[in-house]
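Researcher: Next sequence.
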Amino acid sequence: MKRVLSLITILSSMTVTNAQTITDGLRYASTSNYGTARFQAMSGAFGALGGDLSAISINPASSAVYLNASSSFSIGIQDTENRFRFQDNNSSSFDTDANINQLGGVFVINTTDETSPWKKFTIALNYQVESNYSTQVFISGTNQNSIATFFKDQAGGISLDLLEPQGSETIADLYSFLGQSQGTAAQNALLGYQSYIISPLDPLDPNNTSYISSIGSGPVNQKYLKTTTGNNSKGTINLGAQYTDHLYFGGNLNSHNIFYRESTYLKETNNNTASTITEIGFQNNLFVYGTGFSAQLGTIATYNNLRVGIAIDTPTWYQINEETSQSIQTIGQENSNIININPNVLNVFEQYRLRTPGKVTGSAAYIFGESGLISIDYSYKNYASIDFSTNTSSNVFQQLNTSINNRLQAASAIKVGGEYRIKNISLRAGLQFEESPYNDSQIARDTHGFSFGGAYSLGSYTIDLAYSRVSQDTNQQQVFGLSQTYTNAIDTNRAVLTFVFNF
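Model: Next structure:
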């Protein structure tokens, strides 16, 4: 069979999309309480308060509350602790990451006409991290289901002729060809076949489409490591206005940027009698980058010491690109045959579109004069409206979108925060709760957390410090097609330091 290859020894342009999942949609649809230290110390309950650059991300009218121009800069440290249980084995991992949480400024333009009901206008620019993807997963245990099952399933229906290099064709050439013409399943089948993990049922028939495992029946020992880095950040252009002494309005135009890198490695060993392969190492790398757009409108109304706010977020529309690479290593009985296959091919997949859900936030706050305040935010987001699509076909993601609609639900979130002032010192604390986005809460339970912090004001500038802890329990989906799941208890600790400059 003659194959035509065109300049694809290193780069393979994929017309078949990678295997997106519900987890991918939730990753980019979910946000956390990043931002200034004051914002985080009160668990993000700022929708009716304003006067904070991170509050603008909740309610755009927040900028109009400012009396004078201000800027802030926030740096944070995140420590993520994961505790796993897989096949009755417990393990844990820790990951620490430091980054710039927030950077921005607001400019206040007071009206000169004292008879006008419009008191002032504001312009704000702000950069803020929405999600931090830095974490590490490590699980190990004894399994009755070998990774060979995954490769056998991937190869089912693919002819043996497609898995054999032709003439001077290298494995890298064939890997690229299969990526262009057949998709990722065929590439996985090639890796499994060429590394002797699977064998054709009839090795003499080039049209053979059935394969058997080279791993004998019995238990296998597995170790799985996943390392992720990156973040989802938002840049905001904000316009605000104050009308009379009691109404504030604002709008945001947001630019979103996704950067996500994931590296997974599965090592499997066995000493089963019928096995011809005793050790497998399977490496997968994923790189995701994307851009998005969204808008927000909000208002805040005051009456004596009471404040109420409402804000509406549009969906976020993303254009996302994905690239992958793979390699595999196997060892035969008594180290008799060591195979190392690294195609050194970057799979570049067709760009796809993702729409994440909008949100509605209602807020209320009470100001106790100069001594302090208490604030509460309620938000509603329908995760079942997450939608994948492409520019070329509306049917590619039909099954995934149906699954999203059936398995995800609308979720409410409640945040409560308070502040108490003693001269130049401010003390703050907060609580947060968010429902699971899944209909089945066993997949991912509700998220809950607490926070506290303090600040010292020196007049023209303020130093803020905050700590927060957020926890969630999940049952993670299968690894590389294996049927077993693993439980994961996640505790995320964050510390942030903010410098505020008032002009």
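Model: DSSP finds six helices and 23 strands in the chain. The chain has a mean pLDDT of 91.
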